[in-house]
Hints:
Aspartate Aminotransferase, domain 2; Aspartate Aminotransferase, domain 1; 391 residues; 15% strand
Amino acid sequence: MNEGQRLDTLCIHAGQEPDPISGAVMTPIVLASTFVQDGPGAHKGYDYSRAGNPTRSALEGCLAALEGAKHGVAFGSGCAATSAILLSLAPGDHVLCGDDVYGGTFRIFDKVMKPWGLASTSLDFADLAKVEAAIRPSTKMIWLETPSNPMLKIFDIAAIAAIAKKAGAMFVVDNTFATPMLQRPLDLGATVAVHSTTKYLNGHSDVVGGAVLTNDDAIAERLHFLQKSVGGVPSPFDCYMVLRGLKTLGVRMRQHVASARTLAEHLSRHPQVERVFYPGLPSHPGHDVAARQMKGPGGMISFELAGGLAASTAFLKALRVFACAESLGGVESLAEHPAIMTHASLDPEARRALGIGDGLLRLSVGLEDVADLRDDLDRGFTAASSALKSR
């Protein structure tokens, strides 16, 4: 049914045939924990909901279609998806990981997988020669985010895919910030695309979930085994909610990008802003690569506010439209302080090396009127200036 269809159509229809019993156009929420069998092992594709569920299958089919993947595997969170991918490796294996990743991803590598015996090296993937030099005989995986979190670094997926292929390593791209609407890593040579479906894919800040997409049959088989055996699965209701959110993904992403462009340009001209990190600006070092491999620079912006912690705290407290909160990708705009909030799990030295200082703020640009968002940022700048003058 979905062959040849474009992304906006796939968002609404892929994996979601009308219910054969009632004709309902919306995928039913199948809450059953177990399923009747005509005899031992003679079932209709489902026996126990941890192993498989019709609502989850619909979500997995939709996400796979969007990423151009053969297989989709849904999990109860982005961290559960990440953990399952890493558990497909073995103690003693080595992973090359981007130096700028979500704090929860770093925590899994450093605090969970390292004691288990998985070695990892963090590096900046912008220098391809360093990436090649860091490959070891035991390197089984390369893991990166692009755009990265929170510095919005852009990495050349196709070039790194070639390095991974030469090394015989699985190549995983966290595509949460871009979504398939803006970037499809598998088309560029990645082995696996991973998402926190909590973010843009759901888009309404009311679900926690994750997903892994791949064309590799063996990897998919292993991930389904881990999904069933470890049990980090999403509930049928959460799967339904992500499916509902996906139906507007295309129109949402176009507005996220349009508003983020406007605000990034506004920030780049503001005297209290020392630097803006946004791939849509020509000043961004990854601008040309982003223009080549993405359909748009995304809805996330990071910027360095002059005045350090005092200014950034006053700025965040003054906002009225942007909410000071973690997470991203919802219809509402969010602002946060990475050093204290999302990336507090990194030690101070590592944060400084990445440029995550006391003045760095990250914005998830939502769907409110962009003029109101711009006015709200200016409200924050006024408060930051007052805070510095009163010291």
